[in-house]
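step=encode ok
step=design start
structure_in=
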């Protein structure tokens, strides 16, 4: 494990609701391999943004939180978070869900009339 990746325990740091997994399967069929990035920036920056894998460039200011296994999707969907936001959310388990409404125009689900949303739960709770 490198310095950029937080330690893993038995509790997954990021989970998907069934609705999020369904949407990821549809997006994968349309766009190929996928990734998430959550920046904590302005506008929808506090929501997870879904991109074609590699389209959003990550670096030293980002933390890889998970490689999500989605049934029906061949490769893992990586979940990255800005290091500054991870420092605030490091004590939580993130649950990626889907809600009705338009999020950012940059995230792949925008044309679908829904958006990804991160819910959180304190680790150990």
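sequence_out=
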């Amino acid at each position: 494990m490198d310095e950029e990746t937080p330690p893993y325990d038995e509790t997954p740091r990021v989970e998907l609701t069934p609705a999020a997994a369904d949407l990821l399967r549809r997006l994968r069929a349309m766009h190929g391999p996928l990734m998430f990035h959550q920046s904590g920036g302005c506008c929808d920056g506090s929501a997870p943004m879904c991109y074609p894998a590699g389209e959003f460039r990550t670096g030293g200011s980002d933390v890889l939180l998970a490689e999500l296994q989605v049934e029906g999707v061949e490769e893992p969907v990586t979940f990255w978070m800005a290091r500054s936001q991870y420092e605030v959310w490091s004590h939580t388990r993130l649950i990626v869900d889907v809600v009705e409404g338009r999020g950012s125009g940059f995230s792949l689900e925008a044309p679908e009339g829904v958006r990804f949303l991160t819910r959180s739960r304190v680790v150990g709770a």
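step=design ok
step=annotate ok -> Confidence is low (pLDDT under 50) at residues 1-9.
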